[in-house]
Amino acid sequence: MGGGGVRGLAKACHPEPTVAVTVLVTALAAASGQGAGGCLLVAVAVLSGQASIGWCNDVLDVERDRAAGRTDKPLVRGAPQPWVAAAAAGGALVLCGVASLACGVAAGVAHLVGVAAAWAYNGGVKRTALSWLPYAVGFGLLPAFVTLGLPGHPGPPAWAVAAGALLGVGAHVTNVLPDIDADLAAGVRGLPQRLGRRRSRLLAPVPLLAAAVLLVFGPPGRAGAAGWAGLALTGGLACATMRAAGAGPSRVPFLTTLAMAVTAVTLLLLHGDALSAR
């Protein structure tokens, strides 16, 4: 495989969300008290799991992408060949399993269930009204993966699991927003596509705002200045999103919901030490 194939393989794993999720979960592990070795295992497990999900997605969608003329997709251009990406997905999944279970059996099972949910999404759930469910499961189990890998294997607090699940649902709707029309043309009818662009724009900020509320008031102790600031920012962005929802085609709702997701993730990281508090 030449240099073009290597670059294409890297792009086909959806590097932006793959790296973003890896950095988030590794930072959360560090904030919760994981040592350097534990953080490294978490990073390897999440990176390989997310890469396997990205490659799986592009392999399963290659014929649809070809029919749609998606020349921005490496597999459509033939660099790499679909079988190479499929082999990479399988190898990454094996590595994910080994690294996840090395964090502890309970932690590994929690992470692998989340990865399996993402593969199920790629395999067809994304075409159903339950398209949000794999995101809720996958993101909701990430705090469990982190805490169950700590000494004593403490379970995650309910507020963290619920906030993670809400972040996942918000991420799903946000991710789909720009492509709803193309998805409908290709026969993909997940929940956002069924709701339509305008109602999805109205829906997207709701779970993210709810996640922010949980992340401010869920952890023990008083909400600090950073929590109140994050909640105020999230509320302002939610209002801007809903106002823009009725203003015709615009990228504003997508960008504002993305900013809300970043704010909620920041709030989660600020409470990383509360994940294992009992």
TrEMBL record:
Membrane topology: Multi-pass membrane protein
InterPro entries according to UniProt: UbiA_prenyltransferase, UbiA_sf
Major location (coarse): membrane
GO cellular component term of the entry, any: membrane
Keyword DNA-binding in record: no
Subcellular location as annotated: Membrane
Pfam families noted in UniProt: UbiA
Transmembrane portions of the chain: 92-120, 132-152, 158-180, 201-219, 225-245, 252-272
Keyword Hydrolase part of the UniProt annotation: no
Keyword annotations of the record: Membrane, Transferase, Transmembrane, Transmembrane helix
A molecular function GO annotation: transferase activity, transferring alkyl or aryl (other than methyl) groups
Record-given protein name: 4-hydroxybenzoate polyprenyltransferase
Record organism: Actinacidiphila yanglinensis
